[in-house]
Amino acid sequence: MQTLMPSYLEASMNNFRQNQANIREAFEKGMTAGPLSAIHETNMAMMRAAAETFIPGSKKRAADATAASTSSASQSEIALLKEQMAAMQKKLDELGK
Fold first, then answer.
1. What is the mean pLDDT of residues 37-66?
2. Are the C-beta atoms of 40 and 24 separated by less than 8 Å?
């Protein structure tokens, strides 16, 4: 059974995931060629483990987000997600009546 989250909470979590992906990408770009790359890898592993602890499935979502950003099919995936969100909103509206 799916749990229903208030829209502000869902937006906050989406914003958190997006910012987390941006930070991860910035760290990976800035640290992979430098002398601190071993420390960077350890820190990134701890960050992923923490994210997985607090947000179950975030590892898969982060991998999906990375794959979607590099694929040409990302536009169709976004359209599909928008359709799913619209359907969920419709159900929430119906439950609220």
1. 72
2. no
